[in-house]
Amino acid sequence: MKKINVMSAAFLLGFYCCSTGMAGVPNPTVIGPIPATAPPGDPSHNYPFFSTTVDLAAYDYVEEEFFLEGTANRYTTPPLTTGSVIDSGHTYTARIIVRRPASSDDFNGTVLMEWQFGPQADIDAGWLESHDYLIRHGYAWVGVSLRRVGINALKLWNPSRYGTLDVTQVPNDALSYDIFSQAAQAVRSPVPGKVDPMGGLNVERVIAAGGTSPPVTYYNSIRWPVSSTPSSSILPGRFVPISTSRCSDS
């Protein structure tokens, strides 16, 4: 395993680190990897949306796509105050895209998990800006599609591939907070004998990144007061680059 490097701070207005404990966050059902039967650019669109143009194989990296199924809570989100559960049991099917080292020897133990966002579709903003550094230093990157706009764009782009995705059990994106926590749980602590989206890599820490208002709300009202996942958060900038170190397990 590679030793984690310390990066200089830029595009970063806040950094948050806490215990890596994950009690209380349910582990979703992970489905995949979803097969890609056509190369990027093929008219069939039967490959991951926004598939990277980086030659990952040249760096011994892989790109894989998974679906997550589970149930999520809705929360109150008072400004700068701990939220509370409104109701529970809302089913969802969301999507993650994973880019990671193929070998544990090249992995530094850290996953950077991005809350994907865009006005019309989910964009891999952090990956686009940072992939050279991430690959060079052995990071894994995970993008989470959890918003109605992003999921709808996927379904329009390829209905047969993405038709089962659904985050519409409530009339807004209120389920996104739990979906993000559960995505981190699936990456950090996969269920033994079930699908591991990290391909057996030993994940020591998950760092959340996002540059829009929903991740800020997650940071302030949900992530620390209510949920113990992920290990750390970077807000509101993306991770280009960031300053990070091993979080305490106490």
For this entry, give a set of tags.
250 residues; alpha/beta; 5 helices; 20% helix; disordered C terminus
Could you characterize what this model shows?
The structure is a single chain. The protein has one domain (14-235). Helix 5 (213-223) links the parallel strand 7 and strand 8. It has 5 helices and 8 strands. The protein has helices at residues 125-136, 148-157, 159-162, 176-188, 213-223, and strands at 14-17, 29-31, 61-75, 85-101, 110-115, 140-145, 205-209, 232-235. With 250 residues, the protein is an alpha/beta fold. The chain has an 8-stranded mixed sheet with strand order 1-8-7-5-6-4-3-2. It is 20% helix and 24% strand.
Outline: globular
Please tell me the overall pLDDT. 81
- Output the helix-strand order: EEEEEHEHHHEHE
End-to-end Cα distance, whole Å, is 23 Å
Helix and strand arrangement:
Layout: E1 14-17, E2 29-31, E3 61-75, E4 85-101, E5 110-115, H1 125-136, E6 140-145, H2 148-157, H3 159-162, H4 176-188, E7 205-209, H5 213-223, E8 232-235
